[in-house]
Batch of 2 targets.
Target 1
Amino acid sequence: MPHILITGANGQLGHALVTQFASADRLTCWTRPDRDIADPAIADAVAEAGPDVVINAAAWTDVDGAEEAPEDAFAVNALGPKYLAEGCARCGAEFVQVSTNEVFSGEAGRYYREYEQISPGSTYARSKAAGEHAITAVLDRLYIVRVAWLYAPGGNNFPAKISAAADRLGSLRVVSDEFGNPTHAPDVAAAIAQLIEKRRFGIYHLTNDGCASRYEWAVELMRLTGRQSLPVTPIAAHEWPRPTMPPPHAVLINQAGAALGINLRNWREALADYVRTEFSM
Ligand SMILES: NC(=O)c1ccc[n+]([C@@H]2O[C@H](COP(=O)([O-])OP(=O)(O)OC[C@H]3O[C@@H](n4cnc5c(N)ncnc54)[C@H](OP(=O)(O)O)[C@@H]3O)[C@@H](O)[C@H]2O)c1
C-alpha cells in the first residue's frame, strides 16, 4: 500500500479516511493545528513528506459563514488545494481533492453526471469550484471527488442536528423542496480507497446511491431511531431562511466510478448503519 497523506484528518471525512487507511504501510495525518493548508508553505511540507497520494479532506465547510468571510473561504478552499497540488507536483504524488455537489446550480429536477458544466451560486460553492480549477492547472495525476450531504458518527451534521431538535422540541419542521444525496462519510472513504487503486484520474461523484429531500431524510431517521410517531411537517425552503439558499436539486449521479466498478450502497442502508453506531441500536 502506498504512503498516504490525509489533510483535515479531524473532520468527518478525514476521520473516516484515517480509519479506512489505518493499515497502510505509511500514513501521515495532518489536522489544522499541525498544518494550515492555506499557508503557501504547505507545498514545501508535502514535498518533504514525499507521499505517494495526498487526500485533501480539509476545507472551509461553513457555507453560510463563507458569505461573511469570502477571502478566508477562498484561501482554504481554492488556494489550499493549489498549494497541496504544487507539493504533489514536486514529489510526484497523486492528489485527491474532495469537492461538492454545490458547484452545480441544482435546478429543480436536474441530475448531474461528472461531465456537466458547473455553475456555483454561493461564495462557498465558488471557492470549491475555484479549488477544482486551480489544481487542474497544476497537476495531471489528480482525482476530483465530489460528494454531497456528508454525515458520520460524532459529526456536526444534519442527522445529528435533526435528532437533537426532535428530542428538544418533540416535533420537526423540515424543508421538503431541497434534494441531495445523503452520504455516509465512511462509504466515501472506502470508495476513495478503491478509486486510487484504479489510477484512472479524473472527476468522480462518490455519493450514496439514490436521492432524498431533507424532509425524507429526517422522516427516515425518525423511523430508524424508533421515533416514527413524532410529527414531521414538510415546509418550503423559503420558510427556513438562511444567509445562502442552497441549490434545490444538486443531485449527483455516479457514472464514472460505477463504470470502474465503484458503487456506493443506497442512502437508506447507509443511514441504518450510522444509526446502529451513533444510537447503539
Ligand atoms: N459536509 C458536507 O455536507 C459536505 C457536502 C459536500 C461536500 N463536502 C466536502 O467534503 C469535504 C469534507 O467535509 P467534512 O464534512 O468532512 O468537513 P468537516 O467535518 O468540516 O472537516 C473539515 C476539516 O478541515 C479542517 N480545516 C479547516 N480549515 C483548515 C485549514 N486552513 N487547514 C487545515 N485544515 C483545515 C477542519 O479543522 P477544524 O475542525 O479545526 O476547523 C476540519 O477538521 C470538504 O471538502 C467539503 O467541502 C462536504
Note: The mean pLDDT is 97.
Target 2
Amino acid sequence: MQINKTKANITESDLDTIRSVIPQYYTPKRLAHTLSVERECAALAKIYDFSEQDTMRLRAAALLHDITKKMSGAEQLAYCTEHNIAFTDEETHIPKILHSRTGAHFARKLFPGLVDDGIYEAIYYHTTAKPAMEPLTALLYLADYIEPERDFEDCVKLRSQFYALLEEKDKYDALSEALVVSFGYTLSSLLCERSLVHVDIVAARNYYLLQINKDKK
Ligand SMILES: [Fe+2]
Ligand SMILES: [Fe+2]
C-alpha cells in the first residue's frame, strides 16, 4: 500500500463524493452516527483552531472511520491476512478493534488520493487511541465517543463533561482530561464484562494521566 506523507487537500466536493460512496458500507444507524461524527469533528476543529486543510482532513476521516464495521470478525481477520495488516494473537479475540485497522486500509483503497498518513492513523487508532496522539487522531477519537447521536450513558456523560471542562480549563488540558475520563469509562465496562483490554488503551490512559499530573506539579 502506497505511503502518502503529504497532507491531502480535501475539498467540499471531495467530501460530497465520499458521502455519496459510503452509504453502501453502512447500516442506516451507522450512517447517521458517521454523519454526526463529521459534524462533531467540524465543531471540534473550530474549537481547536484547525486550519481549513486540517478541518477537511478531519471531516473526511470522520466519514470513513467505520467503513468496515459491517464485516464480521472472521472477515476482518481474513482482510488483515490478505492485505498484510499486522495483528496480534490477542487482537484475534477482540474483533471490535480490528475494524479500525481494516477501515484505515480500506478507506485508502477507496480514496488513495485523499487518505493521507494522518487520516490513515486517525482511523487506525479510533477505537483504542494511543499515547501522544496527533490532534487529528485525538479529535476523531473524542468525536466518535461524544457525537450527539450516541445514547449510551457513558457517551452522554462524557459529552457534557467535556464541554464543561472547556469552560474551565485550557482547551488542550480539557482534551487530556476528557480522554482520561473516556478511557476510565471504557476500561470499567470492559472489566465488568470480563473482556480483554487492548494494550493501546492502557498505554494511552497512562500517557494522558501523566500529562495531567505533570501540569499539576
Ligand atoms: Fe468504530
Ligand atoms: Fe464510530
Note: Residues 142 and 179 are 7 Å apart (CA to CA).
